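Second attempt. The first submission of Pimeloyl-ACP methyl ester carboxylesterase had a stray character pasted in from the spreadsheet, which I only caught after the job came back as garbage. Lesson logged: always re-copy from the clean sequence file. Corrected sequence (262 aa) follows.
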Amino acid sequence: MSHAAVNGITIGYDDEGTGENVLVLVHGHPFDRSMWRPQVDHARALGWRVLAADLRGYGESTVVPGVTPLSTFAADIAALADHLGVAQFVLGGLSMGGQIVLECVRRFPDRIRGLLLADTFAQAETLAGRAARHDMADRLVREGMAGYAEEVRWKMVARRNPEAAEYVARMMHSAPPEGAAAALRGRAERPDYTPVLETIAVPTLVVVGSDDAFTPVADAEYLHDRIPGSTLVVVDGAAHLPNLERPADFDAALEALLGRVR
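This time the job returned cleanly.
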């Protein structure tokens, strides 16, 4: 594990593998970079250099209370890549991480060689959804992560996979409440990324768990239908975290994407 000082904060990250082909992975809420461990190992074995960082407010990165918009997360990713001397990369994200990836596409498309969009969606938040995210942010600061983590455990992971559910629960319980709340407030104000989708001109993989209740298959189809030449993979029997629930299936799809880029 390593740490870098960028954009006025400290970011904890893993930088594994070598070479000019670089994969950058962005975790979702309320997790940390360890959620990508199967994919880091797999891509590294394929000869890729893999960067997986904790977003600000999570894991080993600085917690900044208040509001963290997706644009700030995107700026942190670019700054870390600059710090490590990485000009171009394949960029992947899951859930909130996928929305951060779309913000990166909007801000610096010339740096991106390929895209992985997992269990995410492009549309702006609804009025009801915005209020719910702000209410949840307030609750996390007031009560901590424990209650929320137990409530959503079996929506994050299908009940047929208790081992993955236990790992995911540990990540959620250990997430800093102030950091998670700041991300929720920022995500509530996110723009509609639909206009960005038709501008994507790099190999793109859209992945979703067949049983995902947070971002159903229809959300993945929405992305797939609007991103030219994209590939859609539905991981059977997985919920919101197919990369941990069905890593072999997820890694096979990722490997095909990296092969297209390479």
